[in-house]
Amino acid sequence: MPASKSSRPSPISSAVAFVLLAALGSAAAAWFYFHGYTLYYGDAEAHLNTARRIIDSRTPGYDQLGTPWLPLPHLLMIPFVRNDALWRSGLAGTIPGVACFALAGVFLFAAARRVFSDTASAACTLALFALNPNLLYVQSIPMTEPAFFLSLCGLLYCTVAFAGTQSTWLAFCAGVFSIAGCLTRYDGWWLIPFVTLYFLLVSDEHRFRNAIIYGAVASAAPLYWLCNNWYCCGDMWEFYQGRYSARGIQGGAPYPGEHNWHVAWIYFRTAATMVAGRPLAWIGTIGVAAALLKRALWPVILLALTPIFYVVSLHGSGTPIHVPQFWPYSYYNTRYGLAALPLLALGGGALVAWAPERIRGFAVLVMIAAAIAPWLLHPSTEAWICWKESQVNSNARRAWTSEASEYLRAHYKSGEGIFTMFGDMTGILREAGIPLREALHDGNNPAWMSAKARPDLFLHEEWAVAIDGDEVSSVMKNEPRYRCVKMIRVVEKNAPVILIYHRQ
Q1: What are the distances in angstroms from CA 312 to CA 191, 263, 267, 324, 470?
Q2: Rounded distance between C-alpha atoms, residue 306 and residue 130, angstroms
Q3: Which residues, in sequence order, are CB contacts of 56 under 8 Å at separation 6+?
Q4: Interatomic CA distance for residues 20 and 26, integer angstroms
Q5: Do 14 and 109 touch, CB atoms closer than 8 A?
Q6: What is the pLDDT averaged over residues 192-204?
Q7: Could you tell me the residue range of the domain that residue 62 belongs to?
Q8: How far, CA to CA in Å, does 155 sit from each of 7, 160, 196, 342?
Q9: Per the omega criterion (within 30 degrees of 0), is the bond before 446 cis?
Q10: Do 252 and 118 share a structural domain?
Q11: How far apart are CA 474 and CA 175, in angstroms?
């Protein structure tokens, strides 16, 4: 059955939404940039440098995509990381983030417009989503969330539009958005069987054709990534169980929520509440019931699947969340709480849809005012948990990165070469203005493996930069040609010691 005219978002309203979102996202990105926050997150630094090493490396090219991080966010940055100034400032990761944020908001607005057949409800949904300061921070920096939200909101729009049009083209487009999501975050893999079942149940005709088209297109991304892991590492499950996977990083250390559904739910719920703000958490939760009464069952299910994924991951996939209220009283992966934001925003829009038409404009203003009240009453970054996590967890790294890069700027000469590990060490090179191709790191095989195994024959770099205890420092301890010329210790709990060596 075709969608009614009233449920179809006009191109003009969508264009206006995009312009406003792009302006909002750009303004937020500029604010965070001028305050120096763009690369506070260690993951933001790593995503930026992963994109850069694809084109700037001893061994540039496809192999630099690596594992376990999915490739799409890095590929989106490539046109921008080519520019040294954009790379060094971190803005190369900001530009695609803002664009994805704006497009995600447009698709969310369009989907809500179809679901509720009401512009006021759609506008409320969009505002509750876009005005969240934690989301505005994450979209301003080189992270994966903006690209995933674009894929999720695009998928939402295609599926709700399909219910009204039965267009096979929309099933194909839904598959394309799923490919984008599956190549951005593993959350996207989790959605495929549920969306395939949706097309099977909702199709009036050609149900198997629509389900197969969507499922085949969407599944291409996970199949590709399994093949990529096998090609790169000889193990198609490297992203899940390898050294740099979430499981590998966590190791055998216990964490709250592991194999305990109740605790896993409590930690995710707490993170989501802190990310969204308590008023929106209540509004959205009540609004979900209102959405179900409006027969918006599928949008609620689809947007609830990602929060469920994180609870499942907390329970059994070695993916912890730490919040300051509970043990271990720290900040870690709090941004996973953003997964609940689209669902809570849709719930707010559902409440507006239940209001009498003559007061819906006023209801939108009340909803927005209530949702942003915590941020207006406490207008400080200290109240934004995603920013606070990045600040607390980066104090030591920013301090030793600054000191080490300052030393190398003063002493390193172009072309001398640096032996180092990829990861946090790469931030030193970026800040010092040293191209990544001047470093021999663990992504440059076979040269890296040869230099590590037989430094007397294959290690020719003039410099080495290491964290005490890593593979580079182990090589240096048995290499008499190099002398430690700089040791950096910062006054932070559990901060590593940074060692800079020079060949004599």
Answers
A1: 13, 11, 12, 21, 33
A2: 18
A3: 81, 435, 436, 437
A4: 10
A5: yes
A6: 96
A7: 5-383
A8: 17, 9, 12, 13
A9: yes
A10: yes
A11: 47
Three-point CA angle 251, 256, 262, nearest 5°: 130
Asked if residues 342 and 275 have their Cβ atoms less than 8 Å apart, the reply is no
Backbone angles phi, psi at 489, to 5 degrees: -120, 130
* Unique residue bearing structure tokens 């700027």: 409
Show the CA angle centred on residue 336, arms to residues 333 and 337, nearest 5°: 115
The pair phi, psi for residue 60, each rounded to 5°, is -65, 160
**Does residue 6 surpass a pLDDT of 70?**
no
**Cβ 77 vs Cβ 93: under 8 Å:** yes
Listed residues 383, 413, 438: the one ending a domain: 383
Q: What's residue 67's pLDDT? A: 87
The two tokens of residue 479 are 């290499």
351 and 407 housed in the same domain: no
* Residue in the structure block whose two tokens are 């009540």: 286
Q: What is the pLDDT of residue 4?
A: 46
The C-alpha angle with vertex 267 and arms to 306 and 29, in degrees rounded to 5, equals: 60
Return the DSSP state at 482: E
Integer Cα distance of 24 and 430 in angstroms: 28
243 in the same domain as 369: yes
Measured in whole angstroms, the distance separating CA 473 from the mean position of its chain's CA atoms is 31
Nearest residue to 188 via CA among 178, 197, 198: 178
Nearest-angstrom CA–CA distance, 34 and 461: 36
Cα separation, 366 vs 372, whole angstroms: 10
Looking at residue 251, its pLDDT comes to 82
